[in-house]
């Protein structure tokens, strides 16, 4: 374990390229024996905890099938591990810390660790929203940092796709102008090595970009941000009350609330990102973690995924752009690898439009759905990635046929009713029909009311980057 930590830490340290941020001087001590020891709970933490591969492996090989040649690869990736964002997330955690700091008695039960000179990892608000890197944590040996995830993802991509990458060693990649997204892209690109000259284009997240963005939800003013309120009201949330009651009984006068209990899950997840482990995670029972995980699934399904009537329209923007590239002959393209970096919500919208994880009946709040394959944290953990492969295969009569296949967090995810090709892929003509059928009643610009914020109707940056300078300033 220690050798693994030191190896990964070495990668993270040598890849440290993000500007320095003030380190919390009080956050100095770590228990190395605990680093990476809580991986079994990541899948319940709303995608806020460190990256993990999709946990249900169908054993389909990631290798390109024999007699086939890979001709295009598209990566649509989320940023790596980060600090909590300023606003409700950080405020909710800080409110709990304030209560702890003003408690004048010894802590008991699962909070007893607070008696042992516990050092709070979120005291420096200048870190909020940033990728976790050796520059902004006191423990650079944490192998779960966002910088390490970005680096590792780049190395794994190089291993899988070295041949096609070397066909165009000068190429362009795209990132949103979020600081943590841009930093992830930098770590990824640097990991590819100095043989590649990558022109990283920075696309604004501003609503005025309309459809020409990696974050089209921002250009959708008709999006209903309270779509989940009624759904979540039907879900049994007594597990949150049980947590606060249990901790208050162990620590009389602490007065934690149901809302505090909910925010403790964020504390748990983000502290792992910063520190490599979190003692606050031990507050929860396994049942409570499962119930919280489903709470997050419900919230995501009806707010960002297929349960929201506009999710397919928003996600159609990147799906249609990628489809246009897939239908372009490779001799007409300047590159065959397309790297795009954005946020979790955008990947969720993309998956909704694409039809991935939409096969089951809608999940409901009346009870936990044990059969669904939709879980927010499985789809978009920190560092999530969806890859699209296009490969050409020789047919028995020696003609070439193109096929499309998707990989979600290191596992092949065949499309339902379109997976009869080699490696459980979908022929390109069938995939064109698949997308056409899904988008029969979809119009991003009209349905989203985009004209209220922008007159940009199409995603063009994959094509016009040579004549248009995409260099938006970074924002947290």
UniProtKB/TrEMBL annotation:
Family: Belongs to the histidine acid phosphatase family.
Residues forming the catalytic site: 79 (nucleophile), 344 (proton donor)
Keyword Disulfide bond: yes
One annotated GO molecular function: acid phosphatase activity
Species of the source: Maudiozyma saulgeensis
Enzyme class name: hydrolase
GO CC field: fungal-type cell wall
Descriptive protein name: acid phosphatase
Keywords from the UniProt entry: Disulfide bond, Glycoprotein, Hydrolase, Signal
EC number: 3.1.3.2
Catalytic reactions on record: a phosphate monoester + H2O = an alcohol + phosphate
Signal sequence, renumbered to the chain: 1-20
């Amino acid at each position: 374990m220690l050798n693994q930590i030191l190896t990964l830490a070495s990668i993270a340290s040598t890849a440290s390229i993000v500007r320095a941020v003030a380190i919390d001087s009080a956050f100095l001590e770590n228990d190395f024996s605990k680093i990476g020891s809580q991986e079994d709970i990541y899948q319940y933490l709303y995608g806020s905890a460190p990256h993990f591969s999709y946990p249900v492996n169908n054993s389909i090989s990631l290798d390109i099938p024999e007699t086939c040649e890979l001709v295009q690869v598209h990566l649509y990736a989320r940023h790596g591990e980060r600090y909590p964002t300023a606003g409700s997330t950080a405020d909710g955690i800080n409110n709990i810390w304030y209560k702890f700091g003003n408690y004048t008695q010894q802590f008991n039960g699962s909070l007893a660790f607070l008696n042992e000179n516990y050092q709070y990892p979120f005291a420096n608000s200048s870190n909020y929203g940033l990728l976790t890197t050796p520059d902004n944590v006191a423990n650079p040996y944490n192998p779960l940092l966002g910088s390490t995830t970005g680096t590792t993802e780049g190395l794994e991509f190089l291993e899988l796709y070295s041949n096609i990458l070397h066909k165009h060693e000068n190429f362009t990649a795209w990132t949103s102008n979020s600081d943590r997204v841009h930093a992830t892209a930098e770590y990824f690109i640097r990991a590819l090595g100095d043989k590649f000259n990558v022109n990283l284009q920075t696309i604004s997240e501003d609503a005025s970009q309309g459809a020409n963005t990696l974050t089209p939800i921002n250009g959708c003013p008709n999006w209903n941000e309270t779509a989940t309120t009624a759904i979540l009201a039907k879900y049994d949330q007594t597990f949150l009350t049980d947590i606060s009651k249990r901790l208050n009984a162990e620590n009389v006068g602490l007065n934690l609330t149901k809302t505090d209990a909910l925010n403790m899950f964020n504390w748990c997840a983000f502290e792992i990102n910063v520190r490599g482990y979190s003692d606050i995670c031990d507050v929860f029972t396994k049942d409570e973690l499962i119930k919280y995980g489903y709470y997050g699934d419900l919230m995501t399904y009806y707010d960002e995924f297929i349960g929201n009537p506009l999710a397919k329209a928003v996600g159609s923007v990147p799906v249609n752009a990628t489809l246009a590239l897939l239908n372009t002959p490779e001799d007409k393209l300047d590159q065959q690898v397309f790297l795009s970096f954005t946020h979790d919500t955008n990947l969720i919208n993309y998956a909704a439009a694409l039809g991935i994880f939409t096969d089951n009946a809608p999940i409901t709040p009346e009870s936990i759905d044990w059969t669904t394959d939709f879980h927010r944290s499985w789809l978009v953990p920190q560092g999530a990635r969806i890859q699209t492969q296009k490969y050409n295969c020789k047919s028995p009569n020696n003609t070439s046929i193109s096929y499309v296949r998707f990989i979600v967090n290191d596992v092949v995810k065949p499309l339902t009713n379109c997976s009869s090709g080699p490696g459980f892929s979908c022929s390109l003509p069938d995939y064109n029909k698949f997308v056409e059928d899904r988008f029969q009643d979809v119009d991003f610009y009209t349905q989203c009311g985009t004209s209220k914020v922008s007159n940009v109707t199409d995603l063009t940056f994959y094509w016009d980057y040579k004549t248009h300078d995409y260099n938006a300033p970074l924002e947290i």
